[in-house]
């Protein structure tokens, strides 16, 4: 798409009741690095990523998604997106302005069609990052986020029409219909996916590992620590990426992945993948079957943050 102004996924911000427990999980076990902390809020970076942070945790009485943040190439692109969204009747949470968060920058926020707060920013200073070494089983970067929606087609249309996302592939079931839409804002197969669910919530947040060995070492570390893995290890067909899905202390699903497919956008044509074919869900055949119980885990709790902007 020639007028696509979104460039990439920056970070996912979560609010959690048991702040200390979540912080321990994401640092000691998951492998993220605290780079800034204030009263009841912490910013967590991935050592291999130039983003200032990839996860923000904030203490709250409610578990909720605070926001999903995407990058744009320039201040002008941020202004153009804000003007387009406002003209189209999309509710802006804030107007474009200088950012006060780490790395500075320029951005604004709005509610998507389901009420999630979305953040768009540009000119954020890159963080000094490093090469992840062989056998170092910590996340390189944030890979993608999957959101739950009671109306997948409506949510897909919003992201296509207003933000320039493109459809990469669709998961279907012969009796249920469309289950998941994989959406891209760059050649990566998906930075966003939209899953069919009974309510609006986070489906999972995915983190890229250095390679297969590091992915398996990280998976093993979580298993040895007693963290519950709900699905994996395996390799999907759509996106061709590996997967190990775990549940964090507040019931959010998080994923270790690697080798997510990069597409030639000029020649790519979306496919329909039938999940009743076991090879679609897991090409290796090593993961436990994706059954109704696994599906219920990824539904997560209904998000009380819809159309309610986070306090920061």
UniProtKB/TrEMBL annotation:
It holds the Pfam family Glyoxalase. Gene3D superfamilies: 2,3-Dihydroxybiphenyl 1,2-Dioxygenase, domain 1. PROSITE patterns: VOC. SUPFAM superfamilies: Glyoxalase/Bleomycin resistance protein/Dihydroxybiphenyl dioxygenase (SSF54593). Keywords: Metal-binding. InterPro entries: Glyas_Bleomycin-R_OHBP_Dase, Glyas_Fos-R_dOase_dom, MMCE/EMCE_epimerase, VOC_core. Transmembrane segments: none annotated. Coiled coil: none annotated. One of its GO terms (molecular function) is methylmalonyl-CoA epimerase activity. PANTHER family: METHYLMALONYL-COA EPIMERASE, METHYLMALONYL-COA EPIMERASE, MITOCHONDRIAL. This is Oxidoreductase. It comes from Planosporangium mesophilum.
């Amino acid at each position: 798409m020639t007028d696509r102004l979104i460039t990439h996924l920056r970070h996912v911000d979560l609010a959690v009741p048991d702040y200390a427990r979540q912080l321990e999980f994401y640092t000691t076990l998951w492998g993220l690095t605290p780079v800034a902390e204030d009263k009841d809020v912490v910013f967590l970076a991935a050592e291999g990523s130039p983003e200032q942070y990839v996860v923000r945790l904030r203490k709250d009485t409610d578990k909720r998604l605070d926001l999903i943040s995407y990058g744009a190439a320039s201040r002008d692109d941020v202004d153009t997106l804000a003007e387009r969204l406002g003209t189209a009747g999309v509710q802006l949470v804030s107007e474009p302005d200088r950012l006060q968060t780490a790395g500075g920058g320029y951005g604004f926020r709005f509610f998507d069609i389901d009420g999630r707060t979305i953040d768009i920013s540009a000119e954020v200073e890159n963080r000094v990052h490093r090469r992840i070494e062989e056998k170092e089983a910590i996340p390189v970067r944030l890979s993608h986020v999957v959101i739950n929606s009671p109306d997948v087609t409506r949510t897909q249309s919003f992201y296509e029409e207003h933000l320039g996302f493109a459809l990469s592939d669709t998961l279907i079931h012969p009796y249920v219909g469309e289950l998941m839409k994989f959406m891209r804002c760059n050649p990566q197969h998906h930075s966003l996916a939209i899953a069919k669910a009974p309510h609006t919530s986070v489906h999972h947040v995915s983190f890229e590992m250095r390679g297969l060995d590091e992915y398996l070492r990280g998976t093993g570390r979580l298993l040895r620590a007693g963290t519950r893995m709900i699905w994996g290890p395996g390799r999907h067909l759509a996106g061709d990426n590996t997967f190990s899905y775990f549940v964090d202390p507040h019931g959010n699903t998080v994923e270790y992945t690697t080798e997510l497919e990069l597409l030639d956008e000029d020649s790519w044509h979306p496919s329909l993948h039938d999940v009743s074919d076991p090879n679609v869900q897991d090409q290796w055949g090593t993961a436990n079957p994706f059954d109704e119980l696994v599906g219920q885990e990824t539904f997560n709790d209904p998000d009380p943050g819809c159309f309610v902007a986070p306090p920061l």
